[in-house]
Amino acid sequence: MPGAMGCVDANGLTQALLAGKRGAALLATPAHQNRRRVHCQVRTQAALDKKKINKVVLAYSGGLDTSVILKWLQETYDCEVVTFTADLGQGEELEPARKKAEAAGVKDIFIDDLREEFVSDYVFPMFRANALYEGVYLLGTSIARPLIAKRQIEIAKQVGADAVSHGATGKGNDQVRFELGYYGLKPDIKVISPWREWDLNSRSKLIAYAESKGIAVPEGKRGDPPFSTDANLLHISYEGNLLEDPWAEPVQDMFTRSVSPEQAPDKATYLEIDFEKGDPVAINGEKLSPATLLTNLNKVAGDNGIGRVDIVESRFVGMKSRGVYETPGGTILLTARRAVESICLDRGELHLKDELMPRYAELVYNGFWFSPERRALQAAIDETQKFCTGTVRLKLYKGNVMVVGRKSPYSLYDEKIASFEDDGGLYDQKDAAGFIKLQALRLRTLGVSRGV
């Protein structure tokens, strides 16, 4: 009980486990009492910090959750709230977010178009690594969080805010990604995570709070919980609802960026993508900005039923989570990139990249975009891309992306050497005998020594 211990500290579970006869002596030791005092001081400091917040920058979408958070911050911390809404190509009208913020009394409202920066400085560098988390996930949500965090910190410095806040829950990866970004860019920033502080731990409580404060509740938010979605120019994700059963097949009307492969055209679509130093720069010979290029790839891929994946992933916070993703343009881009690398990169470069990729993908997934190890890996990866320039021809058909051609001025493919016809002495097949004999030496030695 609180009265018995003087303070219900963060180590309460340990106290309960030690509360038997053998634990009583441990609980009374000076070391344990000191730990209790430290935890009590932490809780007291947390309460005092609420009084110290003067201004907070909130990552704000204008949806129900962040609208509730906005009001909760104003009431709980009695501070000024600055809203920041990022346009990452999620396909939503953002001006309603401005009007909602104004109606809530917000004076400083930031709505920034970050689409080009998102693709050129985050998506493309990640794709140069051919990053796939657990072999499947193209990291569409993960890669957006560092940019949002970066811009929040920039705004905090600009307006003199001493805190930032986000709407990620205490169960997911995004809380980690946002906050690692914040602390990596401004170590002394204060972070407010409402979902870890308030008692609005259910949809009904959230709606009741919203209604009590005059916050409009969209009709779609009532009744059964909707799919939880996250969208940007690279992808859209779906979680929750019937997807919480990993055996349940997704309903077709859930998807928004692609037709089903069954409904895709019966005629194949061909396209060519030009690359310069590892990055796509043109489609069918037309030069495009990074964001425009990805937008166009999304359209043609979605029309051909490309880019859907259904996975159970390992969250950084420890649990398994089922998610369904649509990443149409990214799916094409990954296939095309590997094709141009296949003729431009040396075997050693290719294989080393493939070894580094899972570690790189894990760093991005877990939120370590601004870490020194991610930057080090990026430098190594980018070094391999200096001669990764060329064109890839693709065939799109009913959910499939097929490479049907590739060329490069730096191609390492030599048709004369690879040919089954007379190569004019470029490759002496007799040399292979010595090569094989040396490679087999350790295997033969093992066989003799171990009696295989």
Overview of this structure, please?
It comes from Coccomyxa subellipsoidea. Keywords: Amino-acid biosynthesis, Arginine biosynthesis, ATP-binding, Ligase, Nucleotide-binding. The chain is α/β, with parallel strands linked by helices and 452 residues long. The protein folds into 3 domains: 1-52, no CATH class; 53-221, Rossmann fold, CATH 3.40.50; 235-345 and 384-407, Argininosuccinate synthetase, chain A, domain 2 (Alpha-Beta Complex). Helix content is 44%, strand content 17%. It contains 16 helices and 14 strands. Strands 3-2-1-4-5 form a 5-stranded parallel sheet, with helices on both faces. Helix 5 crosses helix 10, helix 7 packs across helix 11 and helix 13 (347-366) packs antiparallel against helix 14 (372-383).
Give the distance, in angstroms, between the N- and C-terminal Cα atoms.
Answer: 68 Å
How helical, in percent, are the residues?
Answer: 40-55%
- Which fold name is given in CATH as the topology of the largest domain? Rossmann fold
Main beta-sheet strand count, sense and barrel state:
5 strands, parallel
Count of the separate structural domains: 3
- SSE order, as H and E? HHHHEHEHEHHEHEHEEEEEHEEHHHEEHH
**Beta-strand share of residues:** 15-25%
- Label the CATH architecture of the largest domain: 3-Layer(aba) Sandwich
Query: How many E-type strands?
Result: 14
